[in-house]
Input
Amino acid sequence: MAEHSIVTRTQVGRRPGRYVLRAVVTAYLFLLVAWPLYLVARNAFADGFTSLNDILTDPDVTHALRLTVVIAVTAVVINTVFGVGISILLVRYDFPGKRTLNALLDVPLSVSPIVVGLALVLVYGGREGWFGPTLESAGLQIIFATPGMVMATVFVALPLVIREVVPILQEVGDEQEQAARSLGANAVQTFRRITLPAIKWGVIYGVVLSLARSLGEFGAVKVVSGNVLGETRTATLVVEEKYLNFDKGGSYATAFLLALVAVACIIVVSVLRPKEDR
Amino acid sequence: MTSSTLAPQRPAAHRRSLRGGLPLTRVSGLGLGVAMVWFSLLVLIPLAAVAVAAADGGWAGFWRTVTNDQTAATIRLTVGTALLVTLVNIVMGTLIAWVLVRDRFFGKRALEILIDVPFALPTIVAGLVLLALYGPGSPLGVNIANTRIAVFLAFLFVTLPFIVRTVQPVLAELDPEIEEAAASLGASRFTTFRRIILPSLTPAIAAGAALSFARAVGEYGSLVLLTGNLPMRTEVASVRILSSIENDNLDSAAAVAVVLLAISLAVIVVLDVIQRRVMRRG
Output
């Protein structure tokens, strides 16, 4: 191991081009990501902990933070159940239209969040939507209420769990599942004892990624929420509103909280993943 | 060794080869039914509603909406900047992937994490983050807020991971012996790169480029605070759609949205074609 790395180092050392590339890449990432990210943390703490303290004691902001967490967790739960289920169907079963479904499942990744919001409003909007007026007369308001915000969040994060679980399911194969079944295990037992432990890490990555994506959704939620103070305002909407109202301290502090969670999610995944690869 | 931390986009060859499988049982058939109902209610019907709303005014109405001066300007700016950003990403993304796979140095792990930040960071925070360095009061002494450069920069930030993460695993799996053979036969390093490495990376680069283009075209959140959304100057297509929605003009919002959806659809088809070609080659 040690010897190997020495050899690699001398090879690297003989090629000055590598240092140039390394420097270019590091500088690019520093200017595009690292420095801007650092500045947000610095701006959030420009007056010590005052800004952070202010937003955490503001009932509107704490309500927004709570709402964000509730929506994100609900969306992640829905996407995890749907994602694991559909992954198993795609990999283990055969049915007509499978290829098309597989391609369609990627659609949410390349649809603009604003278009997502518009699409949901057109169907579930209370006044002119396709289903909206019917649902509303039955007492279920979707647009400008929490259900619509959950749907928008589920939409944008939909493929993430599937993309993590499908390759793992393909890799582990179905021999163990067949063995379990031939030994008399029923479907639930096979899933709980064999399939779930095998795809455990994929599900965990998918959940962490979906959580990061869901907590930070902005455009789609903005369209369907109506952005009502103290009711349907989420954390990302607070960042925008505070900035536009010249409360930069509050805006940076809220942004700092969101960035902190996002970076924590990435670090969790990057710490877990190599263990899995080994 | 080199782990692609988030791998939001897996390389072509690793995805779908979903042929075969058991026939549906009663339980799995029911599961598929429930999943399809949910997927239809959430994704398919709403997207169809966008197309229907856009078609409400007939072809003439649709054409009038999307060729309206201000709207056409937003589409031109969005697509043009997205293309430019994708070109930069093709070069920089491949370069970053190369350094992450082939080089070893202290702090590489940190760079790996930085690559994924734009993927996980809320877009509105991304805008704020860029504003802190390149906006008013910038420590670099530049101020690009409310200019077209801001649109370019925001797109560049949010699309950073795509090509890196599609190219990286393919590059890691390349057999170094072929490169060594080329070198021993007298190929220069540039020739080896152009003739040996680049052809194997092309499908991954193309897939990443398609995704990065699609992402840029639909971007909204990071632009809100950064570009000022000035009509005819820095307004992009998704901002235009939002202002139509806010003016309660859903039909013209839908018309512009259909243009964006058509672009997304084209990207998915291109991706599918690339993946099929790669799979056929083995």
